[in-house]
Specification:
With 196 residues, the chain is an alpha/beta fold. Helix content is 59%, strand content 13%.
Length: 196
């Protein structure tokens, strides 16, 4: 059963044309956009800087480096799902080296079902990372608002002699009366009274 979802943007980085052909062929269809595969980590970095991808697949070795450090770096420093494909002989070593980064490692020869499953896991991982990022951003905004309101309350207490309860009520009332956020009212209070 196919769910109606937007297509996932997949960047394929492979040092071999055969690898690019195989991976794009396996992922072709309606679900994944595998346009513009690249052969090197440098090219992949440039693409990742200019286009928002959901999934990165690195088929080692790349033209300019092996690719494991590149894959780990992208997994650690972004919310992209990363799949790394290596020779079977070095699978354990590379998997151990990259597992703390959140990289999904597959060994060659690669089956179609293993690739599909890994890409789906990478997509699920990315979706979860994006949700967590949004939660963190929301929490940061709330903490910033609390700090700002507390700063404004301190200004009202020190400059106008209010107690904390009245300072809080004053900010809340002004926000309601002026149809502004508590942050906007707090910023106004700070600008108005702090330099006096």
């Amino acid at each position: 059963m196919e769910f109606d979802r937007e297509r996932r943007k997949v960047l394929i980085a492979s040092g071999s044309d055969k690898g690019i052909e195989y991976l794009t062929g396996q992922l072709s269809g309606g679900r994944y956009d595998t346009s513009y595969p690249v052969a090197s980590a440098a090219e992949a970095r440039r693409r990742l800087d200019s286009v928002a991808y959901d999934i990165l697949i690195v088929n080692t070795p790349l033209k300019d480096e092996f690719g494991a450090d590149f894959a780990s770096g992208e997994a650690e420093n972004s919310n992209i799902g990363v799949v790394l494909i290596v020779k079977n002989e070095i699978y354990d070593q590379i998997a151990y080296k990259t597992e703390d980064s959140g990289v999904i490692v597959l060994s060659k020869p690669l089956s179609s079902s293993a690739l599909t499953q890994a890409v789906r896991v990478a997509a699920a991982l990315r979706a979860r990372l994006v949700k967590e990022e949004k939660k963190t951003e929301t929490m940061q905004k709330r903490m910033d608002e609390i700090r700002l309101v507390n700063h404004a309350k301190w200004v009202l207490i020190s400059k106008l002699g209010m107690d904390e309860e009245n300072a809080h009520r004053s900010i809340e009332k002004q926000a309601m009366d002026l149809r502004q956020t508590r942050s906007e009212v707090s910023q106004f209070i700070i600008r108005t009274y702090e330099n006096q």
